[in-house]
Write a structure and sequence with these properties.
single chain; alpha/beta; Rossmann fold; N-(1-d-carboxylethyl)-l-norvaline Dehydrogenase, domain 2; 2 domains; eight-stranded mixed sheet; globular; Glyceroyl ACP dehydrogenase; oxidoreductase
């Protein structure tokens, strides 16, 4: 960045899969991060997880030539003070997200843009709970965010131009292309993809094809890059079920009601790549 356009100051709320991935992306692009995690064990483990992801990004050739930026871990949303943009990346629960964003909003200035990384909850629904609803917009980073260069940007009905400009500057610094879409449950990608994954899992549940066969057909016949069930493992099957429940509740679409196979995998702790077992088995995975 230049003196006229300084490097944005970024805070990320939540050290789960997405929070660590977004942090990895930012550090690799030379953007420093304050990573806020209230759980002491997850907070202590976060730097090592970020280092592993940075090494993976380096091996895949997707890190920029910028020097690796500084990571600071913190315990409270109030530690986001001073950030230009705060990205919330906690669990897909509207009440928890609204509470966390409200706490952040009370700690930062009016010039700080607030971003929710929700995959399914409407931005306006969350904004309505905030003291300054105009500060909030959605940016749906895909996983792994350091590999996928396009993101959904969701502008709510009350989102200010100032917040959009701040996030646009951040995405430029991160080397990401934002596609602006309208607000609503699931936006574009989750509304289409998550129902497709649910249908794919239902086919396996019914015994009509294996997960490998479903993915092979979707890859080779329809051009899906990884196949829907490998994608489910990458998203996290527990996260996927949470998102499907949100979509079902807010749209009434029965196709979004999580199928029994997905629910059983969550009950069994088979959450996908992060747990080492989902529709496929993964080795050398540390959740």
């Amino acid at each position: 960045m230049t003196e006229e356009h300084p490097t944005p100051r970024l805070a990320v709320l939540g050290a789960g899969v997405m929070g660590v991935g977004i942090t990895t992306l930012a550090l690799g692009q030379g953007v420093p991060v304050v990573l806020v995690e209230t759980d002491p064990a997850k907070r202590a483990d976060a730097p090592a997880r970020v280092e592993r992801e940075l090494r993976t990004a380096q091996l895949m050739g997707v890190r920029s030539g910028a020097p690796r930026a500084e990571l600071v871990t913190a315990a409270r949303p109030a530690d986001c003070a001073g950030a230009d943009v705060v990205i919330e990346a906690i669990t897909e629960d509207a009440g928890l997200k609204a509470a966390a964003l409200t706490e952040v909003s009370e700690a930062v200035g009016e010039d700080t843009a607030l971003v929710t990384n929700t995959s399914s909850i409407p931005v306006d629904e969350l904004a309505a709970k905030l003291p300054r609803p105009e500060d909030l917009l959605g940016v749906h980073f895909m996983n792994p965010s350091y590999l996928i260069r396009t993101v959904e940007v969701i502008r709510g009905s009350r989102t200010s131009a100032r917040a959009v400009d701040s996030v646009t500057r951040l995405l430029t610094a991160l080397g990401r292309r934002g596609v602006l879409v309208g607000d609503g449950p699931g936006f574009v990608t989750s509304r289409v993809l998550h129902r497709m994954i649910n249908d794919a899992a239902r086919i396996v549940q019914e015994g009509r094809a294996s997960a490998e066969d479903v993915d092979t057909l979707m890859q080779d016949c329809l051009g899906h890059r990884t196949g829907p069930l490998r994608t489910a493992d990458l998203i996290g099957i527990d996260n996927l079920v949470d998102s499907l429940r949100v979509l079902h509740e807010r749209t009434g679409d029965e196709g979004c009601r999580p199928c029994e196979l997905l629910l059983q995998k969550v009950r069994d702790g088979e959450h996908g790549r992060k747990s080492g077992q989902g529709f496929y088995t993964y080795t050398g995975v540390v959740s």
